Amino acid sequence: MDNKVKNQIRSIVGKEHCSDRKEDLFLYSYDAMNRRYLPDMVAHPSSAQEISRLINLANEQLFAIVPRGAGTGLTGGSLAVDGGLIITTSRMNRILEIDPENQTAWVEAGVFNGDLQSAAAGYGLFFPPDPASMDFSTLGGNAAENAGGARAVKYGVTRDYVMALEVVMPTGEIVHTGSAAIKSVTGYDLTRLIVGSEGTLGVITRLLLKLIPIPEAVGTMLAAFPEISTAAKAVASIMSSRVTPSTLEFMDRTAVECVKEYLHDDIPSDVAALLLVEVDGSPSVVEADAKVLENKCLEAGALYVQSARDSEEREALWTARRALSPAIMKIRPLKINEDVAVPRMKIPDLITGIEELARKHRLSIVNFGHAGDGNVHVNLLLDPEDKEEVSRADHCVKELFQLVISLGGTLSGEHGIGIAKAPYLDIELESSATDVMRKIKQALDPKNILNPHKTFDYDKTSLERELSPDNG
Fold this sequence. Notes:
With 472 residues, the chain is α+β, with helices and mostly antiparallel strands. It has helices at 3-13, 22-27, 48-61, 113-121, 139-145, 152-155, 190-194, 228-239, 253-258, 283-300, 311-322, 324-328, 347-361, 387-406, 425-428, 431-444, 460-463; strands at 18-19, 41-43, 65-68, 85-88, 95-99, 104-108, 125-126, 162-168, 174-178, 203-210, 212-213, 217-225, 247-252, 273-281, 304-307, 334-341, 364-370, 375-382.
């Protein structure tokens, strides 16, 4: 990118809202995935109109544009693998309107999920998608990745709550999709096309989100099991019961060790797995449903089931769960995090298969996640200096994905494909399916300007531009 183009970018967003200084670029060279790519420039536009002008310039001068929310993604979706311009939504961070009568909210893309939760609570409402990063991930990024969270088992994922969008297309047009009406079948569903497209088909600037009433009561339980397989069977039993939990989270022994400091009570040494279970609704329903699920856990072989006595204990349990991913990094300095998902009745088979892979490849693997919807986070813990161990992990990941597909599952339940899973996409998708995706991308983005070399547009040569400790 030459200085003439950079000056044009400065004229669009203001020189105080963009930078090409290396120290600034470095801050945007990475996300929550352990890889680094240096962009040529970073810009912080304040409106869809400014983004439109930037995209028009990119089409004229043929440089890549990479949309970025808060950089909390785990698959490299916001990395500038081909250089170019990163555009953030950091200045587009207003909650524009909360409509309590229609139970909706208009927000800009840079609003943090947690900020909307706080604002909606003032009206007795909440936004169900709750990724572990909700306090510092943006709603635009949540929509681009179709984020889930612990409540997905009962309430669904982000796409289920996006009613309408303002989005800047790869050729610069500003398009409004969807409707404020609950039901709308006018034309193609462009909203659902954009949600989950990982920033490859458009830049989301505003969202109309559906909110729902906060439940009257919540019951939270912690169930301890002597074996991982026993906990997995309890999950299957719970999900085949008449009660749908609002959350059903799973942690194996190593995960529990990572977060013991957050738990009020000491966890006995014979505990191999924990389930964090919640039910919500009216007080009488919560009491009855909690009893049903407690019995399911005990029948499956739980050592004990402990209920949170108050909101403080409940929050301590959730603080522990949300701290899991960063806490695991204390064990080994390199982590490969795969968020596979299988039909929930196949969870026992998945856990058994993962244990076999860990033994076969001599790896430490930590498992936790949203067991209620079959979404398990499989964490391979590595020493980056041990090249032979890293090589074993690469083989293990491919075999993990093959196992997941054999169980009728998917490579990613909520993190997306980005660059991390792009090399394995053909394990799940037939070539005819990816061909259709390429045709859609080509039709909407003929010059491949927007977030290139992600998902099915995987390009090994571009990925080799990764910064090393020596050249970074």
